[in-house]
Amino acid sequence: LRLEADLQQAIQEQELHLNFQPIISLTTNKIVSFEALVRWHHHERGWISPGEFIPLAEQTGLIIPLGEWVLIEVCRQMKLWEKELANYWPLSIAVNLSGLQLIQPNLVTFIEQICQYYCSNIIYLKLEVTESVLMKNAELAIETLTKLRNYGIEICIDDFGTGYSSLAYLHLLPIDTVKIDRSFINQMIENEKNLDIVETIISLAHRLDLNVVAEGVETELQRDILRSLNCEYGQGYFFSKPLPPKEIVNWIHNMN
Length: 256
Ligand code: G
Ligand code: G
Ligand code: MN
Ligand code: NA
Fold this sequence. Notes:
The chain is an alpha/beta fold. The chain has helices spanning 2-12, 50-60, 63-84, 99-102, 107-119, 131-136, 138-151, 166-170, 182-186, 192-207, 220-228, 245-255; strands at 16-25, 31-42, 46-48, 92-96, 125-130, 154-160, 177-180, 211-214, 233-234. One guanosine-5'-monophosphate binds next to β2, α2 and α3. Residues 1-256 form the EAL domain. This is EAL domain-containing protein.
């Protein structure tokens, strides 16, 4: 209960921060995008991981104001980077969307308004939703995501392979990109079945005209295998852990 009140306060009093994890093109080796990941610096307890407070935020409905803060902050950051990182443009930022956010009646309007206000309708935003979130209120989720896509926002299916939507539904979903869950990438080399799964997801995604991001790439060998399987993009500690905005700028300058 205490943590709930604290989280409410944290949203208002700027204890929340965003880290950004680079997403890399495996063909050009250049950065193409980031995933925004929220962090909470509690005034007494120090850093609290999203694994702990996102579920709390979902249970209490605080994910709505928290999610709005994240979306606005991402647009503000993009506006700054558009100048600061002009040499590396175009870049985009992917934001994780919770199930409760996805069924808010005003989500589409809210997103259109902030894109208009902060970015003059230029769309830098991508949205990530998990399979389970998509399947929970499938009809409404599909309707909302279709509107967002029509507005120009790319939709990624996150943690793919861990939920139950399965391959059978993939072609029915209004999505552009599949993010393969890091558990498959992690075990790809030790466990041949996981390599088969990764290969199958990639080739199916390509037949459906979807792009693929491999999550949790931690080694050069994993990167090389994914590249040989024609996986378009990679994300993971091999490239970079999630970084605060200032460090992102240094990281990009050093990388390129
Ligand atoms: O960065 P880390 O691995 O600690 O993130 C843990 C989990 O928190 C991930 O599953 C991630 O999707 C989720 N998460 C991080 N930031 C956000 C956010 O802004 N909104 C939502 N809904 N989930 C987030
Ligand atoms: O659930 P979602 O995919 O949104 O969350 C991404 C999470 O994965 C973040 O918490 C991030 O810190 C974590 N992550 C990113 N790259 C790696 C990696 O290479 N290895 C591991 N173990 N975790 C990673
Ligand atoms: Mn994600
Ligand atoms: Na993921």
